[in-house]
Amino acid sequence: MKIYLIRHTKPDIDKGICYGSTDLDVFETFPEEAAAVKAVLPKITATTKILSSPLQRCHKLAQFIADDHPITIDKRLTEISFGEWEMQPWRSFGKETLIKWKDNFVHTPCPGGDSFQSVFDRVMELYHEVIELDAEQVFIVNHSGVIRAFLCHLQGIPLQNAFDEQFGFGVVFEVENGEVRRLK
């Protein structure tokens, strides 16, 4: 089985705003970005499974990729919640607050939000179900934080180093036999 971890395209939000589980729409460049993502994916077969975060920036991409193929929405693929920080400018939290949070984001959630450990735990629950699916390939359309949780597990990366690698919107990782390859 091959698993494709697919990050949504650019969301419609200004730079510098904290968002995670907020249900943002896609940016106007969606058609071009979505076509570029679809171009690197293999053709859908009868046994292909497509999973998506319920947030519209993922679901729209999943629909674009799927054509008429069924999509399973799974809330465990929802991005990390930043709680009270959602939709606020990052600079409004203050340097000291951000440093304190970044020093232990794995176990310390933002006020009213998720810790990265909680995201990792729900992603691992889903991953163990995915690898048991009777499918030739599985497309998982989701978010940066969720992909990072998958990559930590698959590549043996400590959770505190989850954000060391940078990648943009529309990135696609192919996973086969535990090996990870970046396609886009």
Descriptors for this entry?
184 residues, alpha/beta, Rossmann fold, 5 helices, 6 strands
Strand adjacency order, main sheet: 3-2-4-1-5-6
CATH superfamily: Phosphoglycerate mutase-like
Biggest beta-sheet profile: 6 strands, mixed
Number of strand segments: 6
**Which blocks of ≥5 consecutive residues have pLDDT under 50?**
none
CATH class: Alpha Beta
SSE ordering: EHEHEHHEHEE
What is the annotated CATH architecture? 3-Layer(aba) Sandwich
* Count, helices: 5
Question: Would you tell me the overall average pLDDT?
Answer: 95
Chain-wise SSE layout:
Elements (H helix, E strand, L loop, with lengths): L1 E6 L22 H11 L8 E4 L3 H11 L5 E2 L21 H9 L12 H15 L6 E6 L1 H12 L16 E5 L2 E4 L2
Parallel strand pairs: 1-4, 2-3, 2-4
Antiparallel strand pairs: 1-5, 5-6
Offer a quick outline of the entry.
The protein is α/β, with parallel strands linked by helices and 184 residues long. It is 32% helix and 15% strand.
Characterise this structure.
The structure is a single chain. The protein is α/β, with parallel strands linked by helices. It is built from five helices and six strands, in the order E-H-E-H-E-H-H-E-H-E-E. The longest helix is centred in the last third of the chain and has 15 residues. It is globular, with a radius of gyration of 16 Å. The mean pLDDT is 95.
